[in-house]
Each structure stands twice: as structure tokens, then as C-alpha cells.
Amino acid sequence: MSNPLFITNEIFVCLYEKEGSKFPHSAKIMAIKEIGGTQYYMIHYRGRKTTTDIRIPAGKENGRMFKGMLKEYGEKFHVEISSDAWEAEKKCKRKAMDDLERTLEKKEKVVEQNTYVFQCLFKINFSFILRFIVMFLSY
């Protein structure tokens, strides 16, 4: 098998076919699977339902799959990007930022919990040490 030009989780521009026309749309490689001896890119159009997901055979990328983002594609090929495609890309970026914020909040909570546990253990150990010293001095 040849090495695919794209990798799993890569964001790129894929031409979305609708009513006989092709429109550039932001997409993501969800997986690369071998089916019947042929490698396929499992592609999700970002911001769209999974029912629009497609697969393209590795080696058949030309004219359909393009490295880079929508803005770069539009500038390179002098093509106007549809408002649907822009909205989908913005929605995905907002979701990614929201996911990142939630992850950071979770990590902050874990740090707070670990700090609390450490403080409790320190107090317990400190009080144990004090009792041990008092007990030792009292003998």
C-alpha cells in the first residue's frame, strides 16, 4: 500500500458535491481504513451532520482534497467560499475553544482537589509529628 498524502485528524479543504456542483468545505480525516485491499480516507465535513460523511480512495485525492484552510483555498484558486462553509468552520473553531476551556477548568479543579488533599495530609502528618514529639518529650 502507498503512503496516504493526508493523516488521521488532519483538517483540510474537501470539495462538497451538491446538486452536481462542487463547493469547497472544511473537512477532517476521521480515519484511514483499508476496505477490499484499498485504503480509504473516512472524511467528515466539519459543521455538517455525519450523514454527509464520505470516503475517498487514497491516491484519488487530486482535484478533491486540498491541504490548508478555506481562506488559503479561496485565495489560491480565486474562489468565493459559501457562507455555509464559513459558518461551519467558525462553529468548529468555537467548539474547539469551548472544549479547550472545559478541559482547562477540569484541570484546575483537579489541581484544587490535589492541593486540598495535600494540605489535609500535611495537617495530619504535622499533627502526628507534634503528638509524637510531645509523647517523646513526656517520657
TrEMBL record:
The record's section on SUPFAM superfamilies has: Chromo domain-like
Coiled-coil residue windows = 83-113
User: The organism sits in which domain of life?
Assistant: Eukaryota
InterPro entries, A to Z: Chromo-like_dom_sf (IPR016197)
Q: Which UniProt keywords apply?
A: Coiled coil
Recorded protein name is: Tudor-knot domain-containing protein
What lineage does the source organism belong to? Eukaryota, Metazoa, Ecdysozoa, Nematoda, Chromadorea
